[in-house]
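Hi R.,

Here's the chain you asked about this morning:
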Amino acid sequence: MRAHSKTAAQPLNNRLGESSTRLKRLRPVAGLLLGGVLMGLAPVNAWPLAWIALIPLWGLLHRPQLSTRSAILPGRGSAIAGAAIWGIAYHGTALSWIVWWLKPLLWMGLPWIGGVAIAFFAWAFITLWGAAIGATWMALMLAVNRWQPVTGWRQVLLGTALWCAVECVWSKCLLYWSSLSYTQSPYNLVGLQLAQLAGPITITAGIVAVNGLLAEAIWKSEWKTFLRPANAFLWSVILFFSLHLVGFGLYVRPLVNAPEQALTVGLIQGNIPTNEKLTAGGLQESRQVYLDGYESLVNQGAELVITPEGSISQTWNSFTQDRDLFMRAVVKNGVPLLLGTFAHVDIEKNQGPLTQSLLMLSPEEKVVGRYNKIKLVPLGEYIPFEKAMRAIMGPLLPWASLAPGGFSQQLTTPFGPVAAGICYESAFTSIFRQQVNRGGELIFTASNNDPYPARQMMQHHAQDVMRAIENDRWEVRVTNTGISGVVDPRGRSLWISEAGDRVTHQPTVYRRNSRTPYVCAGDWLTPLLLLSALTECLFRRIAHSKEQML
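And here is the predicted structure, written out as tokens:
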């Protein structure tokens, strides 16, 4: 009986052993998913998580078994697949609001099922697009290490340089939202000041490097250079505090606001759902809300009034009632109005494709300034590969593409030039840097944000906070349904509206002519890191070749 029991127990032990082995193989995958989720949660007032969330991704470089054999991630490309898993978890979490709120598609005339299909498609596509960032980084790391293996601080330098390079290329594409740098905004104001030096990539580089050093400490990589015998963990702590010490020095600099540069600005958050604006009643309500808001702010002493993106959802000059009502109000009160609306490219002749625009209406009864949205939202404001998409999706795409504005634009006002952006453009730093370089003394952004939850609104506001810091400018942000806000050049939100409220606000902001290192030189850090990392790899390659010859 004992022998029989022993024999019967063996299959059970084998099964338990196999289960244990499978669980061990699952651990790296679970770690990658957890790391991605932690990074995805960082933009929601959890910014410290970003400084540890990349450790599982770095760990793939210290686990050779993942790139050669794994039941979960088989084959040589398993490390790349693992990086993609991290990216899916990060971007999928950070952008989950896309599928939770489908109303932006319903007002376009789509049926509910069509809206669901497109929303899930958009979320999946953007998530996978983001996942490709991590996978590309891992592929480049493996390729360089195959050419010349690096360890310790050299690997951290190489990984930081390559991540910055990939993110830099990514920022030039049409789909760009969840840079690692935005995980710190708007909460870590001390760390965000580093953006003055070389833009958001400065913060991204710091996050990647600190995570890389922590990974070196965890996997006990050998440090055979001048850093020995220091512990990589200690160096990660030193780097983290050094970055924030530099940021603190930038943050506490006195902010000089010259009285002669002061400007009292009026903001109108109309809080009118986009689908209602397209009805006759909604259009009438929009006219009344923005005209009443304008009159009220003028009476309170506003020198310039700003409205959100698409405040009047009709084409300028096509409906004389709207044009005349607003022009007469501006002429009567003598206070210019920046109106969000649609307009033909040739606004005088009322010809050409439509643009999403901000029009500066002056008391001289003229449109004295105009800004046309440059970065249009794919599947929202324009249709990529329009002919092919219409052939595939047909009636699910009832709207026509808008025309993008040119990069050489500069919005002029009676008080001087400003840097402007409309909604989605807040994520694209180069749009604002170029306008500041051309003399923009303030930053104005106008958005809709109608159907989205407060989480998306705060992410959007966080991007505008970054734009204020890196350009050293006061920023005024006005939206249809929230969150509107006023941000000073240090990134402090001096006023934030509640989402879903109809509100007017009248802050005093200050025009500035300063130029940060980033405004002057752009992203100089990425090429410097790349040059340093690749030079070090090349020198090691040459030294290794000489050793082999001897």
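One quick note: The first strand starts at residue 262 and ends at 269.

Cheers,
M.
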